[in-house]
Amino acid sequence: MTNGQRRVSIFGATGSIGQSTIDLIARNPDAYDVVALTGGHNVAQLAQDAIRLGADVAVTAHDEHLPALRDALAGSGVEAAAGDTAIEDAAMRPVDWVMSAIVGAAGLLPGLRALEGHATLALANKESLVTAGPLIMATAQAHHARILPVDSEHSAVFQGLVGEDLAAVERVIITASGGAFRDWPIEDLASATLDQASAHPNWDMGQRITIDSASMFNKALEVIETKEFFGIEANQIEVVIHPQSLVHALVGFNDGALMAHLGAPDMRHAIGYALHWPDRRHLPVDRLDLARIATLEFRAPDEARYPALRLAREVMAAGGLSGAIFNAAKEVALDGFIAGRIGFMDMAHIVEEVLIRLDGDVSLAHGAMTLDNVRAADQMGRNTAQQVIDTRR
Ligand code: NDP
Ligand code: MG
User: Would you list the domain boundaries of the chain?
Assistant: First the structure.
């Protein structure tokens, strides 16, 4: 803290989670000393927010955008930087609190660096836990740094566990909206278009996670995230479809009690909880009118419609570096779908093919959970997924 202000940095500031974080911080600017904001292609937004919040430094991930960022920041006193190393450097600037909201495996390294600097890490980047859960948890422990979940389901579980003994937890149930295609005939899914997959029924999110919601790869990542973050066994984690997206998760205890967390589908809820933790503060989110809502529905997910859920179970059973392979293959398959190279259901087929091809690779199954090994597994997953896509054409 400086002058009672909390020093904060936001990684992925130009994205959906980043912008919601900025919304909360900008409502109370005197409480925060903003150190670093990072973005990717959206240089105009990055510069505008960095100036508005008086950040020390603004970093774009892409070197080619540095001149534009410099121009946009000229005369403002905000430093401009570009590239992955500059993002890593920004993560090493001392702060009290960091929002990790870069999308994809690129979010891992800045998160690790922030933890090494003892910052509290508000973790939206679920890919960090999927690719390198044990590494990121061990890094937090070694540096006495705290990780607070920002994914809505995980924030809900975290809140449900306050004051409870983890040994009394029997199961955790995370809910899924079912995404854009939950009510589509299953035979139509193969021809689903990018626009159709990019429209979420309940949540307003970045395009990649929205498509991952339609395929349930998002929920697959979240099941693994639950296991890694809370140290809960895979067979204690359940997924239930809940079309209203008002119950975010439930914790089941050994006396049969189920504690549910409800709230409006607005990520400022979970972001605000992580920002103000351990306090609760007023948040500008809608209040639920239960009588008007009247009905909450739940149903079991159909694994034929959502093969990603089965793949997540296989990955958890395999352990080791298979999470890094899974996530990397998923990212490449998603790129392929966004580029129009493969169909919607092909994404799961490709990821499964990668897992089969790399199953039994000793270096992956028994490789230690180091950053170098995670990166090598990630690269192997990406290369193999690309080969699978290329040979299918
Ligand atoms: P967006 O796509 O909206 O934003 C992603 C952010 O990361 C942007 O700032 C983007 O920059 C930046 N970025 C993209 N690629 C790179 C890269 N290679 N290196 C550095 N920065 C990069 O994503 P969301 O905000 O939706 O999601 C962020 C994370 O939070 C994801 O891990 C997602 O799974 C998780 N999450 C999101 C939720 C949501 O409601 N959106 C809910 C729960 C979790 P730019 O846009 O300028 O190119
Ligand atoms: Mg979620």
Answer: 6-149, 319-393
